[in-house]
Write a structure and sequence with these properties.
With about 140 residues, this protein is an all-alpha fold. The protein has one domain.
């Protein structure tokens, strides 16, 4: 079974060596993980959502209806320049994001909020991401 995105990031952060962090990221590669990393580190990816704290009610840790491994396909509704995002009124876009946050695992929700705010995961740097997934970052 695939690990949650937050689990992969926490496992990578626990590694002491850069090579080990890269190995963890590569061994647990998923589109969701790569989308989160690109959304966080790539300056070309801009979000059409307000920065800062997000007022949402996190789901229960062991009973959440959605999974970021599937929900990441909704990122297109939040990214600047995306036709789907540009067509949505701001309140609908924000409501869709809140629904995503409230549906996924609470720690994955924090990962999403940090992604929107461009705050990197703890102990994961841009050079690590570039080496783990060459060509992922476009800027």
């Amino acid at each position: 079974m695939a690990k949650y995105v937050f689990e992969v990031l926490e496992l990578a952060a626990k590694q002491r060596l850069k090579e080990d962090k890269i190995k963890v990221l590569q061994q647990n590669e998923s589109w969701a993980l790569k989308d989160v990393l690109r959304g966080t580190f790539d300056s070309k990816v801009q979000w059409l959502l307000p920065k800062g704290e997000v007022p949402y009610e996190p789901s229960e840790e062991y009973n959440h209806p959605a999974n970021l491994l599937r929900e990441n396909t909704k990122f297109r509704y939040f990214a600047k320049g995306s036709p789907q995002a540009e067509q949505l009124p701001a309140f609908k876009r924000e409501r869709l994001f809140l629904g995503m946050l409230e549906g996924v695992h609470p720690k994955d929700a924090l990962v999403l909020v940090n992604m929107i705010n461009k705050e990197p995961p703890k102990y994961i740097t841009r050079p690590i991401v570039e080496e783990a997934f060459p060509g992922l970052l476009k800027d």
